[in-house]
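Annotated sample (chain length 252).
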Amino acid sequence: MDFSQVEAEFERLKAQFEAGAFTEAEFKARLEDLMIQDEQGRWWMIGFETGQWYYHDGQKWVQSEPPPVVERRREQVEALSQEGAAALAAGDWGAAIERYEAALALEAGHPEATKGLAEAKARAEEARRPETKKEPEALPEVPKVRWGWVVAGLIGLILLVILISTIIPSGRSPDEFAFWAADEIIAPGECTSLHWEVPGVELVRLDGPGFGPEELLPSSGEAEVCLGESAVYELKNPDWEFIAAVEVHVRD
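Output written by the structure step:
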């Protein structure tokens, strides 16, 4: 029996218990029979009251999510995001909103789903607006073209573009950035890992507990953080310009 089968069996037993098929003690005993061991040798079980996963660290039960469950949820999120993108491309705003909201319910702050949901809602709102007809405006009198001024203006514009391109480095779209936490909700004292990918730069900064103000990190990597209270981590470039943020919530 794998983790998904254990979850299905838990739901079946819970429904029977709530229907009065057996007592609380019998329900707990059956849940103990559903304990499962992962590849690291840790024992996992679903809590009677919370319905959440816990593993035994050798001394106590710690609330967390098994890696197969996390991976399965991530695959579901990616599938829903792709379905939302397909619906958005087809102009089905309602279906796109539904898929993106389902993805964000599984993984809050997912970059593609967050952006797609905002675009789908904007398109849906635009489609609901009534069309208004405008009266044709009288065409203004066209002045005579002075070609000498036009040529001078074009030359000035070209020079300005060249000047700006030499001073300001080319940027990248925020859609290419990725910044997430493996577990966005943890228990006090528990650890999780931050992951980031920032194409086009060599170094980045992490602004938050556990990272020094002068510490520079590779543009793609991960770092473990252990927290006693909730914290927000901001990903910035070496010049302290904001790129993205993620919050790790510590349960009370």
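Annotation: The radius of gyration is 27 Å.
Annotation: The chain is about 40% helix and 20% strand.
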